[in-house]
Design brief:
Helix content: 25-40%
Number of helices: 10
Number of strands: 10
Shape: elongated
Number of domains: 3
Strand order of the largest sheet: 3-4-5
Structural class: alpha+beta
Distance between the termini: 55 Å
Radius of gyration: 26 Å
CATH architecture of the largest domain: 2-Layer Sandwich
Strand content: 15-25%
Largest sheet: 3 strands, antiparallel
CATH topology of the largest domain: Double Stranded RNA Binding Domain
Amino acid sequence: METGLQNVPQGKIVNIEDQAMSISGLLGQVKLIQEVMEKVMKKDEHYGTIPGTKKPTLLKPGAEKLCLTFRLDPDYQIIREVRDKDFIAYTVKCNLTHIPTSQNIASGVGSCNSKETKYRYRFIDESTGVPVPKKYWDAKDAGDNKEMKRSLQIPNMEGEMRASKIDGQWVIAKSQRIENDNPWDLDNTIIKMACKRALVAATLNATAASDIFTQDLEDMPEEIIKTTSGKPEPEKIEEKPEPLTDAQLKDIRAKIDQKESLSSTEKTTFFNWIKDNKAETMTTKGKKVITKRGAEEIIKNLNALFTEYTGGIFDNKSSEISDVNAPI
């Protein structure tokens, strides 16, 4: 790897172009990265493509291949650490050193914490006995999240459902998401994720490969890391959301009133929790209001929301029910 770096006495004024990589060296580095990608790396193992994007996403195994190619040795330093009873967070800096010359080439920073969605919650699955339909896997391969959700619907069944492997069989399961009350089980995973993100960032910085790869996104849900043609999806025209109707508001409050296990104050708090945490909202003249579609989801999934709310993972502070179209 031609670097053009020379030893310069400290304090001496230099022209940075004198230390620049030559054009031939720069072209050679780009060509080498492209050859490694073509002849060594594998799609969905070393890199993936997010649907609708033009560039592949560099994954950790791909970053390791580039470090091996350019003889770069990663060294990790924790620059921020939070290890409380209910919260763990790490910010890590990865420094890459050129092994033959011992020169520091580049660095990158990555972070991870236990409040990220994939670490904050765990699922309790109850089998429905219904096998996962083929159209679910077809939609999964295509990266169509909406079609995947639709394919898991069972008539007359309320609550959240997902594909789950239970007793060795893939079935549709009624799933209850609850807060992970012991993030310490994930301590090692969280610090490794921070290191991985730092490594990919440092590798892109060191190899100037951001024009070939995007930043690491491999911690995104598996179903959306799929290879596509690289052509961006046509822009979708979003329908303008409508605020909820008076009938919907009345229906929501009536369903909450049916929860006899809640006191009047707790019903108030439950309503406000839904509005603050679960309602699809729109902005009108600087105010957030529940949308008509958001109200439909609330009415449809109220029992599941009630189960989640009473799981003890949210602060049940009493408050007065405010107008649903008031600022949130």
